[in-house]
Amino acid sequence: MATDSAPAEPVQSKAGYHHGDLREALISAAQQLVEEGGADKFSLADACRLAGVSTAAPYRHFRNREEILAEVAARGFDALHEKSAAAVEAEGVGTTEAIVAMGKAYVAFAVEQQRLFRLMFGQNPAVKEAEQVLGTGRCCFQWVIEQVALYCGKNNVEGDATEIAVRLWTFVHGAASLLIDDDYATVVPDLDVDAMIARATPGLLAQVR
Questions:
Q1: Of 53-67, 133-147, 171-185, which gets the smallest average pLDDT?
Q2: Mean pLDDT of all residues in 158-178
Q3: Over the stretch 66-75, which tens digit does the pLDDT of each residue have?
Q4: Cβ(80)–Cβ(138) below 8 Å
């Protein structure tokens, strides 16, 4: 969450850059700034200041702010994938518990990384339609489809894994969005979202007739 505390310390001094470190330092600075203030307030100048480089430095690697934000969003999908994979592995691949854990992990990521989550699913076409964002986003969802297919095979569920995965994603993404926008707090302040996911998932996994 953003704070009004003293400005963040530069992530690395100019003297420390070598062999592509500048690009990574700028991305790291951009990630930190998005987490602290959101993508809407992000500027290349702020990233340069945090990274401890000149304002001309980003243009060696990025044409504009949208390109560096696209890299941040793409890495967000990678992080979401890693979090979900760890949750599934902990519960056992192909089980109902694993699919529930995957949904809970999705919502937890949205809560923990609200500003990054908003960037990943935001309405900036230059970011949302960037090649690396589309690529990592599709890979992330393809993995969900694979987990659903494994569940269906293990539990003799005759259904389209893609359709079932879309149902699950629609449900948990909606829940995550309502939660971080405080909409649940307005109408059902005592709602246990994790418990709701656990109750709803078996029905979402069932074959559609």
A1: 53-67
A2: 96
A3: 999 999 999 9
A4: no
Evaluate if pTM is beyond 0.90.
no
Per-residue DSSP letters for 5-42?
SSPPPPSS-GGG--TTHHHHHHHHHHHHHHHHH-GGG-
Both tokens of 72, joined, read: 């941040």
Task: Output the CA angle 17-21-23, nearest 5 degrees.
Answer: 120
| Residue partners of 62: CB distance under 8 A and separation at least 6 | 26, 44, 68, 71
What domains appear along the chain, each with residue ranges and CATH number? 14-60 (1.10.10), 73-205 (1.10.357.10)
How many CB atoms are located within 10 Å of the residue 134 CB?
14
Backbone angles phi, psi at 4, to 5 degrees: -105, 25
- State both tokens at 147: 């987990």
List CB contacts of 5: < 8 A, sequence separation 6 or more: none
